[in-house]
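so my prof wants the structure for this chain in the tokens format not the other one, which i didnt know existed until like an hour ago. anyway here's the sequence
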Amino acid sequence: MIVVITPENLRSELIDASMQKTVAVYFYAEALPECQPVTAQLEQLIGPQTPELTLAKVEVSNPQLQGVAIQMGLQALPAVVLFQQGRPTDARMGMEQLNDLADWLAPLLPKEEDLLRDQALAALEQDDLVTAADAIQQARQLQPTRADLIKLHIELCIRQQRLSQARTLLEQITMDDQDAEYQRLVSSLELAEQAAESPEIKALEQQWAQSPDNISVAEALAVQYSQAGRKQEALELLFPLLKRDLQAGDIKKIYLDILATMEGDPSASRYRRQLYSLLY
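here's what i got, hopefully its the right format
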């Protein structure tokens, strides 16, 4: 969050606001060239979408605001003073002290994985599973064992009907993190798994077990698996048949149709490579 300090909002945006969260008060002068890169860096670090920290900009060429800089005992510009609980707690003055600005503010700013988590949550709220999958993948690369990110990944897998992967991820949650959210995910997964075991699927599985060379049964079972969210099982069923005869029935078309529905699923690339190995 970024605010511009004026004589009118000085108390509310600086003193009062710092009772709720840290305020980085930035003292600068537009006429000073050395202030310009610091201004740009601060606005990049503390953007309007950063709720954890407020950047309060004080243009000291305003005579009505110069008294604030004097009260802070500032000896050089640009300067940044951290306010917490209505009082200054730390400061950096002049270019030399501001060289490590990003490192200095890092403990107060959200971590990259937290920003990615929030992005994924927002995408899931909009049912944008592709964006959510990309954000979750990046966040988990940074923190692969963080429980809240694993739970978010499980939620995504259930939404995408990747139930086997969701079950595998559930096993990574330790006892200490098996909270109410964990229990909700367990219940959601169990309901999804029950829905995936339809009578039609069970009947086709029995037919396939009895007639493992019946292409029509394999095609119908693969379609049912895919519709129930068991896409990897569908592809695993079809691929050996493709290896045997690439032109048999509609197997190749069904295989490609299933792949087309797996956008955002990291396993899709593996199955696509398997098909290409047969085509080329």
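also thought this was worth mentioning. The two ends are 54 Å apart (CA to CA).
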